């Protein structure tokens, strides 16, 4: 359990995060009760940190964590990227709340919190397939793939029935003609789904049925 003094005063945790933002040796600090008020940098932050330089040897010509224009540019890009996505503030809030909650499964708690911050799924691909139905006749199957936490996942699959009927005691010529027509119709639908439909639905939220219906009109 946290000390009583910490419970009375909402001090944030002190954690040190090394990332692209600290690639030059500067440490990213999250303030808190364990903070000494001193931010280490360079070899003091990580004595083992040694960067290879394309123009220097393994030890960087004797300079640990030597800075180059490329690294400075990379550091600036990383800082802008994290700032635009509000990462520092959210990380600080999450780590502080986790410390005071002290859940038994720390990583499970963090995973649950991060999943709530993730973007909602969006359609990334619609796949049409020519499959056989329960009667052994060709029909259309459509699979919906969505981007969920940066990964494509198959959300649902549906087999679409056709309007063709199976006639009993029909003439062979009629049966053959209907099979050809049915096969052509399914093939056309597959091409349409894999082409036009996929392009029009990409990026839409599958939960927004009204917008999907508007696009498909």
TrEMBL record:
This is Enolase-like protein ENO4 isoform X7. The lineage of its organism: Eukaryota, Metazoa, Chordata, Craniata, Vertebrata. It catalyses: (2R)-2-phosphoglycerate = phosphoenolpyruvate + H2O. Residues 123-217 form the Enolase N-terminal domain. SUPFAM superfamilies: Enolase N-terminal domain-like. Gene3D superfamilies: Enolase-like, N-terminal domain. SMART domains: Enolase_N. It comes from Pontoporia blainvillei. Signal peptide: none annotated.
């Amino acid at each position: 359990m946290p000390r009583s003094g910490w419970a009375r005063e909402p001090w944030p945790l002190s954690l040190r995060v090394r990332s692209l933002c600290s690639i030059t040796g500067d440490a990213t600090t999250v303030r808190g009760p364990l903070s000494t008020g001193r931010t280490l940098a360079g070899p003091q932050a990580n004595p083992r940190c040694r960067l290879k330089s394309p123009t220097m040897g393994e030890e960087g010509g004797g300079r640990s964590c030597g800075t180059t224009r490329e690294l400075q540019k990379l550091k600036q890009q990383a800082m802008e990227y994290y700032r635009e996505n509000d990462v520092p503030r959210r990380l600080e809030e999450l780590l502080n709340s986790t410390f005071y909650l002290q859940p038994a499964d720390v990583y499970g708690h963090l995973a649950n919190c991060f999943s709530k911050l993730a973007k909602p799924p969006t359609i990334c691909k619609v796949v049409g397939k020519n499959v056989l139905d329960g009667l052994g006749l060709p029909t259309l199957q459509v699979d919906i793939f969505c981007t969920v936490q940066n990964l494509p996942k198959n959300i649902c699959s549906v087999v679409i029935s056709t309007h063709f009927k199976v006639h009993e005691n029909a003439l062979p010529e009629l049966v053959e003609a209907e099979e050809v027509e049915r096969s052509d119709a399914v093939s056309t639908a597959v091409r349409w789904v894999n082409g036009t439909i996929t392009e029009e639905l990409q990026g839409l939220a599958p939960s927004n049925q009204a917008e999907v219906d508007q696009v498909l009109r």
